[in-house]
Design brief:
Distance between the termini: 76 Å
Number of strands: 5
Radius of gyration: 34 Å
Largest sheet: 5 strands, mixed
Helix content: 25-40%
CATH class of the domain at 2-73: Alpha Beta
CATH architecture of the domain at 2-73: 2-Layer Sandwich
CATH superfamily of the domain at 2-73: Ribosomal protein S16
Strand order of the largest sheet: 4-3-2-1-5
Strand content: 15-25%
């Protein structure tokens, strides 16, 4: 499957990128089919060949999330931008659902407790008087 993705070029600590069409699973600096443009994030400039990008999308190439957002910014394609950064692992809804789950647990435990008390036989236990209980052995600390 083909992908329109960024290929890193430039010196250390001065990255710039080429927008290329390559096999999706190929290495980042591997062979590419065609160079479609460039992007420089340091100066926030870019240039892309709109006609060739539309051609490759028509053939079936899928842009990566970052390239998709770049193409929307360049007005090559239309649509909403894709969130590139990771989202929080713990959504806010989980906290609210935990607070509302407590009454549900209490409501399901009460009928079960009544059913168990009706069916379980009563067992008498003998109480141990405090005088009969053996004192715990205390070992001296040395």
């Amino acid at each position: 499957m083909l992908a329109i993705k960024l290929k890193r070029i430039g010196k250390k600590k001065q990255a710039s990128f080429r927008v290329v069409v390559a096999e999706r699973r190929s290495k980042l600096n591997g062979r590419s089919l065609e160079d479609l443009g460039w992007s420089n994030p340091r100066s926030d400039t870019f240039k892309v060949n709109k006609e060739r990008i539309i051609h490759w999308i028509g053939v079936g190439a899928k842009p990566t999330d970052t390239v998709h957002n770049l193409l929307i910014k360049a007005n090559v394609i239309e649509g909403a931008k894709v969130a590139v950064h990771k989202k929080s692992k713990k959504p806010v809804e989980v906290v609210a659902s935990v607070a509302s789950a407590t009454p549900i647990v209490e409501a399901t435990v009460a009928p079960v407790a009544e059913a168990v008390s009706q069916t379980a036989p009563v067992v008498e236990t003998s109480e141990v008087k405090p005088e009969e209980a053996s004192p715990a052995k205390e070992e001296p600390i040395s």
